[in-house]
Design goal:
A 6-stranded antiparallel beta sheet has the order 2-1-4-5-6-7. A 6-stranded mixed beta sheet has the order 8-12-13-3-14-15. Helix 8 packs across helix 12. It contains 20 helices and 15 strands.
Length: 563
């Protein structure tokens, strides 16, 4: 049950808190006062999509917070999401920022809008004028019937099989290329795979070739500098070599050490330097001798380098990418070459999957047909209570030959509101007031299958007046005996039936407009019902009518409570 709703910076509402009670909670107010904003705020709490346009002008964010009393059913849902709950209360807050970002908290912990939406389905059901309009579209009737039939698991199984069938069909279509196109594709794939195969690529080869190519391009400089380094170490006709000079130094160090053993460390370092330089000289000489590329080597490296570059430009920027392309092309080629075998297997799979889908669809058809009979009977009972004593209501479940995402059925609601009149399509026969009553009858019939504690009816009384309005008021009150009901209405009969009555008012001070929500006292409730009855003028006559209406409602409520 929704205990309280706090909202701030929502459209024309700066700050407002509404504490809701058990039973039938009525919201009234003049057109444009902001009643819809209250419902919008509740939608925000339930995780529904919301536009940043709801943020009050001049503000950077809007906020809604709701406190619920919850039962064990909701608690088990919260546990699935790891949300702790104490004292059977649930606190939800959602902040909508101007940058489009949302901040959600559930019992004080940060959460997500998607989790909030899943939890919201167990807290509140909202029924508005758009539900009435949905009745005018026959394609929506199948969803209403499925909701009553509770065949969600069967429908899920059907949708999975339906999607599998579509996938197989796409594969068949893909393999069913015309012969010219198939031949062309095979030719291209053969050429590409053979080109990669003939190249005999090796991992790391391109990098190795790049290194050799770089050496070739700089070979003259390398050899010149290597030769000069060798001469510096080994000497020439013009000057002594470094090794000769180190030999001289070593000889003098040996003589000095004969007089002072303390020079041994220095002498050993000179000796080590001599041998290191001798080794370096030998390595430079060996390097220069081996550094020899023939024209044949040069031509091979350039040709191979260009060949690999060509492959890279066509099939991928690296060895790995080229080979991945090769494997994909090879698999595609194999599939095309074996397409007739694959197509035959896929056609067999398609037939089997279609049979499986048909069996599920037939099972769904049986469930819908049975549920349609039960629901139509319940709707007739409900409509009879709603001042339509001669009503005929039928749910036509027609099995078609073609599959779609919802099965093989076409569902349409038929109605006759008058005795002797043949039932026809709801969209063509029902008036606005009759639509409102049909929707309320459907919702009432479906409540038995619904564990949600709070129901909201947002101006579902369009086109209703007089006796029919009174019957709708009585029906809403009956529903509220077992559930909390919130109802936005313009009808005095429904307002008079309230357990708690809230007035939504818009006030303007200078350029500022603000909407407030106020719980009315019994006297204020009489004045508001008088206003609804008489429009702008409230006089003694409208007050008398309001009091009479309240008295009759009170008597009716007492009778219902006492059984």
């Amino acid at each position: 049950m929704l205990k309280s709703l706090s909202i701030s910076n929502f459209a024309v509402i700066l700050n407002a808190q509404v504490d809701f009670g058990k039973g039938l909670n009525i919201l009234t107010g003049e057109t444009g006062a902001g009643k819809s904003i209250i419902i919008d705020a509740i939608n925000v709490i339930l995780g529904n999509r919301v536009s940043k346009n709801i943020i009050r002008s001049g503000m950077d964010k809007a906020r809604a917070e709701a406190l619920f009393d919850i039962d064990e059913n909701v608690k088990s849902v919260l546990e699935e999401f790891g949300i702790e709950c104490e004292d059977d209360e649930l606190l939800i807050s959602r902040e909508v920022n101007a940058d489009g970002k949302n901040k959600v908290r559930i019992n004080g912990s940060l959460s997500t809008v998607s989790i909030l939406k899943e939890i919201g389905e167990y807290l509140i059901n909202i029924h508005g004028q758009h539900d009435n309009q949905a009745l005018l579209h026959a394609d929506k009737h199948i969803d209403i019937l499925d909701g009553y039939a509770e065949n969600g698991e069967l429908l899920s199984k059907y949708r999975n099989t339906y999607n599998e069938l579509k996938t197989i069909k796409k594969e068949i279509e893909k393999l069913s290329l015309d012969e010219a196109e198939k031949t062309r594709m095979i030719s291209i794939l053969k050429y590409e795979t053979e080109e990669i195969e003939n190249a005999s690529l090796k991992e790391g080869e391109f990098e190795e070739l790049s290194e050799k190519r770089n050496l070739l391009q700089n070979s003259q400089k390398i050899l010149e500098n290597t030769k000069r380094a060798y001469e510096e170490l080994c000497g020439s006709e013009e000057y002594k070599s470094a090794t000769e000079q180190l030999q001289e130094a070593l000889r003098f160090a040996d003589k000095a050490m004969s007089y002072d053993e303390g020079l041994k460390t220095v002498r050993d370092k000179i000796s080590e330097a001599y041998y290191l330089i001798e080794d370096a000289s030998a390595e430079l000489s060996e390097y220069a001798e081996k550094f020899d590329f023939s024209n044949e080597d040069i031509n091979y490296i350039e040709k191979r380098f260009d060949e690999i570059n060509k492959l890279k430009s066509k099939y991928g920027s690296s060895y790995e990418e080229i080979m991945e392309y090769y494997e994909r092309s090879l698999a595609e080629l194999e599939k095309l070459e074996k397409s007739e075998i694959s197509k035959e297997k896929l056609n067999e799979d398609y037939i089997n999957k279609k049979d499986e889908l048909k069996n599920i669809a037939l099972e769904i058809h049986k469930v819908r047909t049975s549920a349609g009979l039960k629901l139509s009977k319940r709707i007739v009972e409900e409509l009879t209570e709603l001042n339509m004593p001669n009503v005929v209501f039928e749910i036509k479940v027609l099995k078609k030959e073609e599959f779609n995402e919802k099965g093989m059925d076409e569902v349409e609601f038929l109605i006759s509101a008058n005795a002797g009149q043949q039932a026809g399509p709801l969209s063509k026969i029902a008036s606005g007031g009759e639509l409102s009553r049909v929707m309320l009858a459907i919702k009432s019939a479906m409540f038995d299958n619904n564990d949600v504690d709070t129901l909201i009816f947002d101006e579902i009384d369009t086109g209703v007046s007089g006796r029919a309005a009174q019957k709708i008021a009585e029906k809403l009150y009956k529903v509220s005996l077992n559930r909390q009901v919130l109802c936005v209405t313009h009808l005095p009969q429904i307002a008079a039936m309230s357990d708690n009555h809230y007035l939504i008012e818009k006030n303007q001070t200078g350029d500022k407009v603000e909407t407030t929500a106020k719980l009315l006292s019994e006297e204020e409730k009489t004045d508001e019902i008088s206003r609804i009855i008489g429009g702008v003028q409230i006089n003694e006559n409208t007050r008398i009518s309001a009091r009479d209406m309240l008295t009759q409602s009170c008597e009716y409520k007492m009778r219902e409570k006492n059984g």
